[in-house]
Amino acid sequence: MNPLRRPVFRAAAPAAALFFAFFVVSAPSLRADSAPTPGNGPSVLTISGKGEVSIPSTHVRLDLAVEHRAPTSAEAQAEVSRRANAVTALLREAEVSELKTTGLQLFPIYERQQPRPGGAGDAGDAQRIAAYQASTSVSFLVPVEKAGELADQAIRAGANRINRFQLTATPQAIRRAEDEAVRRAARDALDRADLLLGAVAMKRDAVLRLNLSEAPVFPMHRGMEMRAMAAADAIQIEGGEETVTAVVTAEVSFRPAKD
What we know:
5-stranded antiparallel β-sheet, 4 helices, alpha+beta, disordered N terminus, 3-stranded antiparallel β-sheet
């Protein structure tokens, strides 16, 4: 064999192997990317339904605070403790639900110190502690019909601020409403699918997928000043309603109604 031909043979072999590898690897990719032919899979409709349930706000969640300012930290803490213990004892006697301490604070109150007449230097920015303010707060759950009278009694016992006033339902009632809202949303989604498909001579075949999203419940709440209210009549509180909402998105297959 002529040795001059060997380089030609070795150069041609990798080229052929490269062409063969490219063909084998590329051919399946071309089939996978090709457009599907009609009838390869079910026709799918995606549609959403909404469910709402209104429930009465039967309870009030209150957060009561006791605040006091005094010349020393010890005096401020002592007075807050005395009043807070009286308020807590009242609430325990009333057998409120979910009673717990939600806050405890003590901090100094500063005031700007005026420079002395004829004094040396600039003392205009000097500050001194004028007093100390202490506070503590408790939260609890009480039926609407008892909330006004109990708040009035708490004022008389020493509470002087409401940090939160929230009309709500019980957790059990909210959970039952959530479950019913989901059922209504699912039925609404399928009813709308049937309505839409029926309008174009189609009918629902099978439910392929369901997706649930629940809207959070936003109870009414606000803060209220209670100072100088002890002499007034008991606070009258009217319960309202809150709405629980669920949205269900359904994917359904469909076919001609004549099939």
